Backbone:
């Protein structure tokens, strides 16, 4: 069965420091992976996706993600965190071309 | 403005009532989805539809029903059989058959049982 996991419920970083939000996956075949961000009482906004090619994917708002096939991971990163990055982040996996399935989400808190 | 519109933003339901959540998109997307969001449980797939007049159950379809009579509309009915319907409901759409295309989400409907 395909699945995606976000092992951390919450990540805390200071403004200006690098951030990492972790995601691991399980899939038979090639993975199609996505990151979304959600602000309170709003829908999800797309950040970036990995389909094939370079293992480092660049996305919106300065975010990037590193795909690692051997570790079955797709961690979201940003070199310098902003207070405005504080939000709920979801990792998603395309489920055999039917629908996206998501991890439980990670709350990112950036302190000033 | 292109996008997905969910209405209402807030909805209150009495015990034993059916309620219908609206989802409309003008992106000309073939596929549409309904997710339920609960604190600490992430997003769980309720139903999805890849083409008009066809839809499939997701992981938590019990107590819910949908229809897809028009490409742009995918309403979700929360029936009285759903024992714990209080949650945040999100509708999304995407281009059909495109595993490499992202889904676009509406702003959500918060349903509360009173």
Residues:
């Amino acid at each position: 069965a395909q699945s995606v996991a976000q092992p951390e419920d919450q990540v805390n970083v200071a403004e200006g420091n690098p951030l990492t939000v972790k995601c691991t996956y399980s899939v038979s075949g090639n993975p199609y992976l996505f990151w979304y961000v959600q602000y309170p009482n709003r829908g999800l906004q797309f950040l970036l996706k990995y389909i094939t090619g370079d293992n480092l994917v660049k996305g919106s708002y300065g975010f990037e993600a590193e795909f690692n096939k051997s570790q079955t991971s797709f961690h979201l990163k940003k070199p310098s965190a902003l207070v405005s990055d504080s939000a709920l982040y979801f990792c998603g996996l395309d489920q055999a071309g039917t629908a996206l399935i998501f991890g439980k989400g990670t709350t990112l808190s950036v302190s000033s | 403005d292109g996008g997905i519109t969910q209405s209402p933003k807030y909805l209150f339901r009495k015990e034993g009532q059916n309620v219908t959540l609206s989802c409309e998109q003008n992106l000309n997307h073939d596929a549409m989805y309904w997710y339920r969001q609960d604190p600490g449980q992430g997003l769980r797939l309720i139903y999805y539809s890849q083409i008009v007049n066809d839809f499939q159950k997701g992981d938590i379809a019990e107590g819910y029903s949908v229809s897809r009579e028009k490409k742009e509309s995918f309403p979700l009915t929360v029936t009285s059989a759903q024992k714990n319907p209080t949650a945040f409901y999100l509708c999304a759409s995407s281009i059909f058959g495109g595993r490499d295309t992202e889904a676009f989400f509406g702003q959500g409907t918060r349903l509360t049982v009173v």
About this structure: The two ends of chain B are 35 Å apart (CA to CA). The mean pLDDT of chain B is 92. Chain B touches chain A through 29 residues (CB under 8 Å). DSSP finds no helices and eleven strands in chain B.
